Amino acid sequence: MNNNAPSATVTLPGLGWAPFYEEQLTPEDEEYDALRISSVHRSRMKGESTHGPVRISLPAHINTSHFAVGDWVLAQPQSHLLVRRLERRSLLERQTVGARNPQLIAANVDTVFVVTSCNDDFNPARLERYLALANEAGTRAVIVLTKADQVADPASYEAQAAALQRELEVVTINARSLDAVAALAPWCGTGQTVALIGSSGVGKSTLLNTLARKSDEAKQATGAIREDDAKGRHTTTARSLHRIAGGGWVIDTPGMRTLHVSDVSSGLEALFAEITELAPNCRFRDCTHLHEPGCAVQGAVAAGTLDAARLERWRKLHEENQQNTPTVTGARGNKKSGPRGKFR
Length: 344
Hints:
The protein contains 10 helices and 15 strands. Strand 6 and strand 7 form a beta hairpin. It has 3 domains: about 10-85, CATH 2.40.50.140; about 90-250, 3-Layer(aba) Sandwich (Rossmann fold), CATH 3.40.50.300; about 265-335, Ribonucleotide Reductase Protein R1, domain 1 (Orthogonal Bundle). Helix 3 (about 125-135) crosses helix 7 (about 265-270). By secondary structure, it is an alpha/beta fold. The chain starts with 11 loop residues before the first helix and ends in a 7-residue tail after the last strand. The chain is globular and about 70 Å long.
């Protein structure tokens, strides 16, 4: 692979390159440049190379919806003409109403920062949806609580967030303060990629500006929340890849207030591990944990070791996932689920 630029501003490993991608190369690929996609639009894409940003030339009839910010592609060295995309190590995607195919959010992400704020936007049920998405993609999830400086004691928010998933890390920050850079540094080192997901108005763009230490001219636009309901307005309209101060990369995404779950069975199992572990102890193999006798899950609720509200949220997500997950026809017309796999 061609990587001989003498004035390189960043190395391939610094861009996030890893042995996983190297192993996909053939001897014929030596002449091509490896580029990381930094933005995707309907008819154009941009990328990051070892010698700076480039505009990627697209072959005729290419469908850019098949590409995600964070993807690695091979391109011809002079024209930057796209040759092919490399297999992804992880992929964040979501199902949107009326769409035949999932919407690609970000690719090859190491850590997902699920951003929410210490106000009325804090919603455990919505956060669980984001966590299921991150779990299914095979990425690490971290809850980032913003606007901690605007409440007297953020401890209650921290406790609620930490209870959503086992060993879930929760970080409380003021997104405008440089202290946030230090707090999030463990996930933002050289070559690491984080993605910011969350609702509008929770401080994602502000956090991006702080992590990237952008100048006033280069800053992402930010928007205030409405005072009556603490809900925000969209300021980020497209996904984009940005270099951050610690040597890592951050993918900024538009706010997602509605997030339907689909094909996230593994993600839900990890999210609701306490229910997953109890289920094999139920009397009936197909127990719905609703009214069956001998239900170990309902027994835990009765004993006070499992929150009934938590079980109800699991049931809602489980049923929604079953309804939305595509099925394929197996032998003799039998239906079977058709998950796309944890890593794509």
